[in-house]
């Protein structure tokens, strides 16, 4: 197992990071990012591509090892957990929350590495091409992978990866600034051409979720929204703060709660899948949801809700030996059922919603996402979003 002093240092480092990056700093980012970018859940905001090593990369693995099918020990060295975006966003926060607990379970150092570029493509490519020995992991989301694989020329197929589990499954949310003076869904539809929808960049989650909302439901023409593309989440929030934008389709309701609490904004519609509820967390945060999508008379809204749940999963390259894979799944399951971990994540405003370990459900959701988005007209909408 990991040396006790080292583990305590890791815990202290994690808590220092969360104090500044996971919770209260969001409000500071809104005020301070008027001159800068800020981290992004769904795009490249120009962070350190080398990332934070999170420990001594020369240190060997601990004593808690498993003999693999090839006869070697696992882990036999450090584990790299790749975040394909810059520091400060949701993927980064969840990775850093998990890292010390993974160290404790696996008995080795876990290095969180921010590998930025291409809206996640550079980090995903690096993870996919790594040695399939269980020492390289990545945190990503099915929708992000599908957008990039359908809209861009990439060198990987996330469907082939070795899936370990979902750390959280969080529905998306439409946030409107109070200045928009919109109360009902019909008023929103009428106002779509006059609203300025901020995004973290072309092809980002905020961009694609809005396009798909119009395309899947037929409630508005996909060309109707006026998109204001920024470089990262921080800049998009600054656009809302300055009045350049007044609408934001946020990838996760838990992140939308922070937007509402930091700005003069309202949680207009929660696109809630019945299987992945975040309502208890929102109530604890004092957030009032104006409309639940399931209460609105909208064609295909159930399909849209389920497709757009923001599922953050952990995976490894294709071809990881089964016994190593099961060791990783077991460690993941232990962590996501650990009350200390769940409470720490909640306090950091990164709640653990409906975690699930194992390959089957992750693969099922990824396959469903690709099966839907690879068909027309959705594939065309995605390609147009990247090229327009």
Please explain how this structure is put together.
This protein is of the alpha/beta class. The protein is 42% helix and 17% strand. It has 15 helices and 14 strands. The protein has helices at residues 4-22, 25-32, 90-106, 121-128, 142-151, 185-191, 205-217, 233-242, 253-262, 279-284, 301-307, 322-336, 339-347, 359-373, 378-387; strands at residues 66-67, 73-74, 79-83, 110-114, 136-140, 162-170, 172-177, 196-199, 226-229, 247-250, 265-271, 289-292, 310-316, 356-357. Strands 4-3-5-13-6-14 form a 6-stranded mixed β-sheet, sandwiched between helices. The chain has a 4-stranded mixed β-sheet with strand order 10-7-11-12. Helix 7 links the parallel strand 8 and strand 9 (226-229). Helix 1 packs antiparallel against helix 3 and helix 5 (142-151) runs parallel beside helix 14 (359-373). The protein is globular and about 65 Å long.
Strand content: 15-25%
Q: What composes the largest sheet?
A: 6 strands, mixed
Oligomer: single chain
Molecular shape:
globular
Distance between the termini: 52 Å
Gyration radius from CA atoms, angstroms: 20 Å
Q: Helix count, per DSSP?
A: 15
* Strands side by side in the biggest sheet: 4-3-5-13-6-14
- Enumerate the spans where pLDDT stays under 50 for 5 or more consecutive residues: 1-63
Query: Helicity level, as a percent range?
Result: 40-55%
- Counting DSSP E segments of at least 2 residues, the number of strands comes to 14
Q: Could you give the order of the helices and strands?
A: HHEEEHEHEHEEHEHEHEHEHEHEHHEHH
Mean pLDDT comes to: 84
The assigned structural class equals: alpha/beta
């Amino acid at each position: 197992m990991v040396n006790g002093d080292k583990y305590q240092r890791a815990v202290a480092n994690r808590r220092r990071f969360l104090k500044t990056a996971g919770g209260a700093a969001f409000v500071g980012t809104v005020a301070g990012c008027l001159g800068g970018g800020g981290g992004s859940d769904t795009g490249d905001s120009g962070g350190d591509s080398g990332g934070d090593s999170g420990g001594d990369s020369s240190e060997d693995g601990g004593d808690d090892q498993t003999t693999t099918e090839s006869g070697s020990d696992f882990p036999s060295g450090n584990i790299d957990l790749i975040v394909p975006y810059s520091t400060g966003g949701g993927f980064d926060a969840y990775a850093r929350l998990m890292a010390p607990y993974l160290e404790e379970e696996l008995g080795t150092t876990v290095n969180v590495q921010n590998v930025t570029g291409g809206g996640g493509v550079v980090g995903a490519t690096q993870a996919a091409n790594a040695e399939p020995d269980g020492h390289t992991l990545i945190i990503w989301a099915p929708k992000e992978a599908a957008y990039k694989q359908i809209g861009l020329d990439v060198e990987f197929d996330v469907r082939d990866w070795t899936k370990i589990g979902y750390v959280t499954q969080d529905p998306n949310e439409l946030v409107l600034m109070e200045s928009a003076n919109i109360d009902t869904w019909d008023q929103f539809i009428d106002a779509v051409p006059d609203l300025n929808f901020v995004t973290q960049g072309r092809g980002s989650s905020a961009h694609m979720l809005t396009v798909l909302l119009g395309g899947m439901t037929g409630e508005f023409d996909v060309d109707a929204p006026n998109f204001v593309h920024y470089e990262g989440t921080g800049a998009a929030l600054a656009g809302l703060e300055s009045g350049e934008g007044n609408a934001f389709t946020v990838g996760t309701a838990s992140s939308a709660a922070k937007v509402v609490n930091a700005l003069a904004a309202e949680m207009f519609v929660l696109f809630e899948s019945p299987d992945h509820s975040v309502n208890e967390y929102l109530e604890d945060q004092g957030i009032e949801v104006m409309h639940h999508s399931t209460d609105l008379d909208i064609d295909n809204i159930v399909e849209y809700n389920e497709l757009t749940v923001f599922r953050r999963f952990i995976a490894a390259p294709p071809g990881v030996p089964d016994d190593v894979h099961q060791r990783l799944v077991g460690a993941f399951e232990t962590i996501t059922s650990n009350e200390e971990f769940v409470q720490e994540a909640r306090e950091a405003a990164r709640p653990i919603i409906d975690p699930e370990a194992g390959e089957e459900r992750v693969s099922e959701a990824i396959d469903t996402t690709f099966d839907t988005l690879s068909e027309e007209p959705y594939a065309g909408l995605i390609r147009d979003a990247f090229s327009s």
